[in-house]
Here is the input.
Amino acid sequence: MISNNRKKDFEIPKRLVDATTKWENIAKTRDKEAINDAIYKGMITAKGEKQYTVRDTLKAIYYNKCAYCEIIDHKPEVEHYRPKKAVTEDKNHGGYYWLCYEWTNLIPSCHYCNTDGGKGNQFPIMGTRVTSPSFENGVLDKNKCKAANPPLIDEAPYLFHPEVDKPETAFEFRDNGAIRGIDHLGRGRQTVKICNLNRTNLLEARQSVIDNYYEIISTTLKFYFDNIIDYNAFKNILNLLFKKIKINTKPEKKFSLLSIFIENNFDEIIIPLLETPKQQLIVKRAYRQFQNGTLILKD
Ligand SMILES: [Zn+2]
Here is the structure.
């Protein structure tokens, strides 16, 4: 997961805005059954075409990625950060039904992160749980529905919210693709657990990113030591690879958090994979030069 502050640059989908009265009624009557999934999923237009306006706006904001695991997903689900109908950790709660159409509570998620194998209705917190909506003169207080505002922020959720938190420094990766939470509050660890971010397909996909970098470096070293390529070609290939790692840290890229970690911890995660101290020294030095802008390439 990486942080995302792009929602402010997009209009709230009309479908949600149009549902304001229904939203008010759900908050007042506590009628969870009135929550209409069609509002998130799509609508039939006059021409018979489906328009997934809520989903597609979230998709655009999140660069077609699952907000939790960062896989590319062109048909993400509209996930409720705070679950709308039940809370696993509190059987008496009944869910945050009054946040059903709250824009800051909606996040695009892949099917697996959203459902029972992943997050489901889990929402563990460190603070005091909010159990009902706030009203101001009989009207739902929308400011108190926003994820970054009290009283919700004071729940101190374990699960990171990409639009409220800066989760980038709360995780580390292993060379087998495993992700681990490292922040002192344990939010990273809980986020990994809640969304099951070490499930096999994610582990393998992240490991293949690391393996791919290693294989390019390893092959380049072999060609250089076997005199198949000269020093300039060797540096050129490494330069291109280092640039590729940098490009992959961009928010629109799959697993960008992994690439951010590799960029910042190259010596710890990539260098130890190389077989000899000599290989390690050469590549370490080249990476240092790349970072300093002194990996000069001769013609
Ligand atoms: Zn996911």
